[in-house]
Each structure stands twice: as C-alpha cells, then as structure tokens.
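The records we work with from here on pair a chain with its fold. These numbers are not coordinates but entries in a learned vocabulary of local backbone shapes. To see the layout at work, look at the sequence and tokens printed below:
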Amino acid sequence: MIDHDTYPELERGTVAADEMSLRPQNNYVNVLVLRELQSHAVFTTNGQDADLANVAVGDGDERDGYSPGLMFMRKQTGSDRRFGKALQRDLDLFDEDEDECTMQVNEMCQDCPECVLYGSAASNDGDAVSITSRVVYDTAYTLRDATVVVDEKFQNAPGGDYAKTAEATIREPDFFEPGTLFPCVVTLRDATPTELAFVLAITRQNKRYGAATSRLGRTKNHVLGVYAGSEEGPANLELTRDAIVGLRDSEETDYETLRDVTGAENIDPELVGELVRESFQQRIETDGLALDRVSPDTVSSVIDTATSDAFGEALADQRESSRAFLDAAGE
C-alpha cells in the first residue's frame, strides 16, 4: 500500500485518497529533478530555432549574464503525460471492453488517475467537466550558454543519382548537445501518496523529451529529492543560478569566473546534482519555506513500488478514488 500509514512522512504535503476535495488546499510535494541529455535533442517553439533567454547570474560586481537554452514546461509535461497514459495501459488499468485514454484534445477519458491528476478539457460528452491540473511544471534553464549547448546542423539532399548538380544545403532545427543539464522542480498540489508515486514512476522511467523522440531527445532524469509541506519550493531559475555560482566556488573545479562556468565545454552532472540539492535546502532555510525533505529511504521505497508490476493494484484503487473525486463535481 502507498498511503500515510505505510509512509507517514508523506502525510504532510499529500492528502488521503478518501479525502480528495474539489476545494484547493495548500498541500505541496516538490520533486527535485536534474534532467541530463544523453543524445541530441530539439526544444523549439517555431520549429527551427532553439528556445533561449537572457538571464543575469551572480551578485554585485561579480554579476554577469548569459543566454541559457530553455526546456519550456510543455516540452516536459507533454512527454510525461504520454508516458503516464502508456504506463496505465502497461499496468492493465483498463478493462478489455474500455476505450483506453488518449492525448487527443477533448477526447481524454476523464476516468483514469492520469486525467484526474494532470487535468483535461471538457470532452465532447455533455456530462464532462474541465479538470484543472494538480501537477505544476515550469521552464527549465541550462547552466551553460547557448553558444556551447546549442548546435546548428546542415545537410545536403542531392538525391540518389550517381551524377547530380550542386544543391543548396538544408538547415535542420537547432540541436541541444548531449550532456546538457536542466535543473527543475515538478510540484504536486493536493495529491494523494499514490498520485505522487505515479509521478515518480513517470519521472524515473520516461527517457524521451522534445521533438522527434523516435530519433532524438534521450534523457536521464535524476531524482535528487522530494520535499513536502504547505508551499511551493524554489524556482528553477533560482536553482540554476545557485548551481552556476556553486560551480565557480567549488573546490572540485578550476573555474575562476561565472563566465568560465557558463562557457564550459562540459560539466559534471553528479557535482551539479549535489549543488542543486544544496541550493534547494539552503533556500528552504533562508526563505523560511514550510517544507521538509522526505528521507531518501522513503523516496527509494516509493519509487521501487511505483516501478514494479505490483503498482497496478494501487493505481486501480486510486482510480476508484479519482472517480469519486470527479463525481463530486457533478453533484
């Protein structure tokens, strides 16, 4: 079972399955993640250019700026939702005579844990309602400048003949380089322990993000920690800035300036993970955030359960609770 009795640390930040309410409360669980690209990836909104920003980092005279690459929130949630729906099918959540849930707009089933947790628009069914997502994503930023993490590639397409005339090259979309790191937080609000386990299962197992995921976008999600309480944790941008400063100041590196960090050819993901975790904890203390870290043993146990075949039974129980939650909207 994945409940408060089995995991009392989750009582703060989650709600019991039989206490799900349509009225929002301030129960938050923050899942701290470091996304590491293990192949080239494409993150673009116009189909061609990488998404970029201009960001300041550091304080006082040491303040500097750089242009990080971005992984917009929809690039994360879209991929996670597709994986979550596939995970439900893998766990035999649906009966043989049921229509399995889809990502098609206005055609989601609104009858599964994924729909009720991640939200969905009202379907063509007259009895359907709009469901607000209780999983919060935000834009993630690279630690290094776009000049070192984004690459423009060109290709020729001359045809298959032995002899042919010269043709213009074709520019492909901008590619993010392997090894690019994105610190980020996935936040759940008023979720049950099983819903949290569901998100952790998705985060641990989903390995593709961005465009053309059949060929690109291989990603490793490092779960750095889980923090529960009554408010959201630090923003992705804060954690990224802190990690850059931490890399410059670390005794394990030879960086002298912030620009040395943002312009580095590569960065150690293990060290970055440690710095991001330290940043999150320090901001809890300095900003007085009402959050506590869930012990690593508890997180590991929940992930082990959520990534096993036995999780299907817990998810089926959650489906019944999600149905009751949704039925309350029609009363």
Q: What stands out?
A: Residues 40 and 188 are 29 Å apart (CA to CA). The first strand starts at residue 28 and ends at 37. Residues 8-76+130-154+170-315 form one domain. The radius of gyration is 22 Å.
